[in-house]
Amino acid sequence: MKPLVSIIMGSTSDMPVMQEAAKFFDEMEIPFEINALSAHRTPEKVMNFSENARKRGIKVIIAGAGGAAHLPGVIAAGTTLPVIGVPVKSSISMDGWDSVLSILQMPSGIPVATVALDNAKNAAILAMQILALTDENIDLRLSAFKENLKSKVVKANEDLKKVNFKFRVQ
């Protein structure tokens, strides 16, 4: 089995956030790889990864980074594959805004899709949506996942009807 998605993080300190993407892919039965690469400490390895990801069968890259979060942009500069950036609130972070803006404000021609701070699961869902464009089996699993989301909201509303308040109008 070859990975379809590559999850990359700036350092293993990002793992608590990035593992949510890995858990989602396990649940959805999507083959992935997960590695740490640093845009600042190992730039040559990042470029080598970026330039060879497509040849290895990777279809989508999820890159998470904190602080001066250059990793997703550096990866995007070296590939034509879609890159989804996950801003990570790090220990040196300015409440996460440095990471958000570093990933969000990419120059024209080097797009990085950006999800919310610390939301690797949404990055995984977006990656699955991209994969579903050309894979009917993945599309079926994605549709089932989305239907399950709907049923959770319907159930929540039914549960809310059972909660009594003195001035609640039904």
What is this structure, in a nutshell?
The chain has 170 residues and is an alpha/beta fold. It has helices spanning 15-28, 43-52, 71-77, 97-104, 120-132, 136-161; strands at 5-9, 32-36, 60-66, 83-88, 113-114.
| Overall CATH class | Alpha Beta
| Spatial strand order of the main sheet | 2-1-3-4-5
Write down how many β-strands occur, each being a DSSP E stretch of 2 or more residues. 5
Total of DSSP H or I helical runs spanning 4+ residues: 6
- The portion of residues forming beta strands comes to 5-15%
* SSE pattern: EHEHEHEHEHH
Question: Could you characterize what this model shows?
Answer:
It is a single chain. The protein has helices at 15-28, 43-52, 71-77, 97-104, 120-132, 136-161; strands at 5-9, 32-36, 60-66, 83-88, 113-114. With 170 residues, it is of the alpha/beta class. A five-stranded parallel beta sheet has the order 2-1-3-4-5, with helices on both faces. Strand 4, helix 4 and strand 5 (113-114) form a beta-alpha-beta unit. Helix 2 crosses helix 3 (71-77) and helix 5 packs across helix 6. The longest helix is centred in the last third of the chain and has 26 residues, at 136-161.
